[in-house]
Amino acid sequence: DLGLPGQLIQMHTQARVLHQSPWQGVLHITGGGASLLTDMLSTPGASATVLEAKVPYAGAALADLLGREPEQAASATTARAMAMAAYARARDLSSGQIFGLGVTASLVTDRPKKGQPRAHWAIQTRDRSHTFALTLDASANRTQQENTLNLALWQSLGEVLPQSDTPAAATEHQFIQASADWQPLLEKSPYRWCSGDHDGSLLLPGSFDPIHAGHQQIIETAEELTGRPGAFELTLRNADKPDLDFLTVSERLEKISARPVWLTNLTSFADKAHAFPGAMFAVGTDTVSRIGELRFYRQSETLREQALNDLAACEVSFLVFGRVAKGRFIGLEDLTLPATLSGLCQSVPESRYRNDTSSSDIRRQSLMD
C-alpha cells in the first residue's frame, strides 16, 4: 500500500509518461474512476493525450452515449460499449495512434446498493480489445475504493498502451489481438470478411446476442425456399449504438460454429446491397418495417425513394419472416410499406416458420438468473 501521497506521485509519474507517448485517446467514465481524469488533466502535457473526456453520470446521459439504456450499468458489456464509443470518437478526432477507454463502477454511495462494489473497464485500440474487472472491499469508504480503482486503471493503461510491464494487480483481465483480416472492421471504409467459404447470396443479418434456435430455423427455412446456401452476417457497426469490440465478436462467433459468418462494418442495407449485389436477406418484419421508416431518411420521402431504388438497382431482395409484437404475430401482409420496398419482399407464411424466441428475452432471463 503506497498510501495516498505515494500513490499520487506514482499516478502523476505515469501521467507524464503517457503524455510523452504517441497515444491519443477519448475517455468515458461514469463517475467511479474520475480521479484518473484529475491525474491526467492536472499533469502538464495532457493536451497531447486527451482528445476528449466525458462523464456520463446520469442514467439518461449514459443511455444517450450508448444509444439505449444498458441492461446493467456496471458490467463488462457496458464498459466495452463505452470504450468502443470512445474509440470511434477518437478516430474522428485524430489520425494518430488512438485508444478509447470506458469505465463503469458501482462504488459506495449514500444510497443502499445491492451486491459487491465492483468496477469494469475496457480499453480499445486499432488491433486489440481489453476488458478488466475489479472487486472492491465492501468495508472500505468511497475515497479508499476510488483510490484502489484509480491505481488499477493506471496500471492497466500502462500495461495496454504500453508504458510499463507492471500488470494491473487484483484485476480480471481479458484481451484479444485481432488478426489483420479483422482490423479493417473498425475503420470507416466498407469492409467484409467471411469465416468460411460462402458466395454471399443468402444472408441472415443480426447481432446474435445470443444466437438461438429461431435464428437456425430461419436460415434453414430460407435455404429450403430459395435453394441458396445460407450464412450469417454479423455487423460490428450499428447506426444507433457503438461498434462491437473484438472480444465480443469472438465470443459470438464461438457460438455460431455450424455455418459461415460474414463479419462486416456495414451500417445500412444500402451498404449491404453494394457489398452483396444480388443477395437475398432473410429478415424479420420488424427489420423490414424499419427500412421503410422516414426517420432513417431525414424525414424525406424523396431520399427514401432514392435509397430504395438503389436497393432495387443492386438486385437485392428480402425474405420476410413474421415476428411477434405486443402479443400478436405480425407477417409481411400486416405491414404498410413503400411500394418500391414491398416489391423487393417475399413473405414466409406462418405455416412455414414461427418461433417466438427473442435474444432480448434470453438476455433478460439471464440477468434474472
Structural class: alpha/beta
Strand content: 15-25%
Give the rounded overall mean pLDDT: 91
Number of DSSP strands?
A: 15
Span of the ends, CA to CA: 37 Å
Question: How would a textbook summarize the main sheet?
Answer: 7 strands, mixed
Helix content: 25-40%
The run of helices and strands is: HEHEHHEEEHEEEHEHEHEHHEEEHEH
Number of helices: 12
As an assembly, this protein is single chain
Measured on Cα atoms, how large is the radius of gyration?
23 Å
Q: Strand order, main sheet: write it out.
A: 7-10-9-8-11-12-15
Structural shape: elongated
Low-confidence stretches: none
Indicate the topology.
Elements: H1 3-19, E1 23-29, H2 35-42, E2 50-54, H3 59-66, H4 76-93, E3 97-106, E4 118-124, E5 128-135, H5 142-160, E6 172-177, E7 192-194, E8 202-206, H6 213-226, E9 230-235, H7 246-254, E10 261-264, H8 269-275, E11 280-284, H9 285-291, H10 301-313, E12 317-321, E13 323-325, E14 328-330, H11 339-342, E15 345-347, H12 359-368
Parallel strand pairs: 1-2, 1-3, 8-9, 8-11, 9-10, 11-12, 12-15
Antiparallel strand pairs: 3-4, 4-5, 5-6, 7-10, 13-14
